[in-house]
């Protein structure tokens, strides 16, 4: 397997890993990690997920069994060359503190014999790809924030265009807001690059958000279940998996479904420059005030308004419009927070399409749970 050669499936066939002290880290693991997908390994500390990851690039060798990347046994390949053909991102970014950011990213291409000019050009291109400026390349790691350092770590792992990317809790050391931003960035990159990614985390919410498949390990390195996020949440294999997923696994399932197919109805509206209706006008209580571009500005409660002035000048309650790509969980949250109990549905430009009732969201959520819980291949 050479850098840039394309994607690669990873397969584990009856793999064991025991350490000299007798500890079993991975026990009889057979698992396929599809090419071009994100396989997330989850489980409590000491369950073998990081050991599993590190056996792929031979940071550790299995005691027995076979691991193949792109159909080739990793034990039959030179370990150093194998590692250079696989991207690797760790929690603390692992950057060289004495080298500039640009030179950090250029590390693997230089090791592979690229010329300095070509390696630095590739590094500069990747910094832009992960959302950093060219100016960042001149700095040293300590001059960057934690989130920026993690972006550099991802850029460095991608520098030689490897088909496989290993990520060991890469976002665990940053605050929640930055973590969400980094997750968004990874999903954007994956939509463009289609790498085979193996991602280790202890955070089930992160696993559900990022993974195409999630593999749950228990202590002792035993794989309990590997499935797509929806199937895992709806049909955990046993009590251990259900407990690990948590009491809110039903809500997590809603985070996987979007508003795309949820029906909406015509909204009662008033334009911002029009007179604000009052409670004596006889119309609906709740009106959405719209800008000239038909973007929702807020809710007008006519029961609390005595009339007079324009709708824009009246006291408005906040509205958080949602798009078709937003999740059912976001819609459920917004329906509870919305003073009207309605969710404003907008198009990609932000213009109002209609409103969705709290009841319709609940009904659709119930259908989602029922469909997900139905065994594969069963009749509808």
UniProtKB/TrEMBL annotation:
EC number: 7.6.2.9
Span of domain ABC transporter: 10-245
Origin superkingdom: Bacteria
PROSITE patterns, sorted: ABC_TRANSPORTER_1, ABC_TRANSPORTER_2
This protein's record includes keyword Transport: yes
Alphabetical keyword list: ATP-binding, Nucleotide-binding, Transport
GO terms of molecular function: ABC-type quaternary ammonium compound transporting activity; ATP binding; ATP hydrolysis activity
Stored InterPro entries: AAA+_ATPase, ABC_transporter-like_ATP-bd, ABC_transporter-like_CS, P-loop_NTPase
Family, similarity comment: Belongs to the ABC transporter superfamily.
Claim: Membrane is one of the keywords in the record: no
Listed Gene3D superfamilies: P-loop containing nucleotide triphosphate hydrolases (3.40.50.300)
Segments crossing the lipid bilayer: none
Name of this protein: ABC-type quaternary amine transporter
């Amino acid at each position: 397997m050479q850098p840039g050669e394309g994607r690669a499936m990873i397969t584990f066939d009856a793999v064991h890993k025991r350490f000299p002290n007798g500890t079993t880290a991975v026990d009889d693991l057979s698992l396929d990690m599809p090419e071009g997908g994100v396989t997330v390994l989850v489980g409590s500390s000491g369950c073998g997920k990081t050991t599993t990851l590190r056996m792929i690039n031979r940071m550790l060798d299995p005691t027995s069994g076979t691991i193949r990347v792109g159909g080739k046994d990793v034990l039959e390949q030179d370990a150093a060359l194998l590692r250079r053909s696989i991207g690797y991102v760790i929690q603390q970014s692992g950057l060289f503190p004495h080298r500039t950011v640009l030179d950090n990213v250029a590390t693997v291409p230089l090791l592979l014999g690229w010329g300095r000019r070509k390696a630095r050009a590739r590094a500069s291109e990747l910094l832009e790809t992960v959302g950093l400026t060219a100016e960042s390349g001149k700095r040293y790691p300590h001059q960057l924030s934690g989130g920026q350092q993690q972006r550099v770590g991802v850029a460095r792992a991608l520098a030689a265009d490897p088909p496989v990317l290993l990520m060991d809790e890469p976002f665990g050391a940053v605050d929640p807001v930055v973590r969400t931003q980094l997750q968004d960035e990874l999903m954007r990159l994956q939509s463009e690059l289609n790498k085979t990614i193996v991602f280790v985390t202890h955070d089930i919410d992160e696993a559900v958000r990022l993974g195409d498949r999630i593999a749950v390990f228990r202590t002792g390195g035993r794989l309990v279940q590997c499935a797509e996020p929806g199937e895992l949440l709806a049909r955990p294999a046993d009590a251990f998996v259900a407990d690990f997923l948590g009491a809110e696994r039903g809500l997590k399932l809603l985070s996987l479904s979007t508003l795309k197919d949820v029906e909406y109805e015509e909204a009662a509206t008033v334009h911002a420059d029009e007179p604000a209706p009052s409670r004596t006008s006889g119309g609906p209580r709740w009106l959405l005030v719209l800008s000239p571009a038909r973007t929702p500005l807020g809710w007008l409660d006519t029961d609390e308004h005595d009339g007079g002035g324009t709708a824009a000048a009246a006291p408005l309650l906040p509205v958080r419009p949602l798009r078709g790509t937003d999740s059912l969980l976001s819609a459920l949250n917004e329906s509870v927070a919305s003073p009207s109990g309605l969710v404003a549905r907008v198009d990609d430009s932000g213009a109002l399409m209609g409103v969705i009732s709290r009841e319709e969201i609940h009904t659709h959520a119930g259908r989602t749970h029922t469909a997900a819980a139905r065994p594969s291949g069963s009749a509808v």
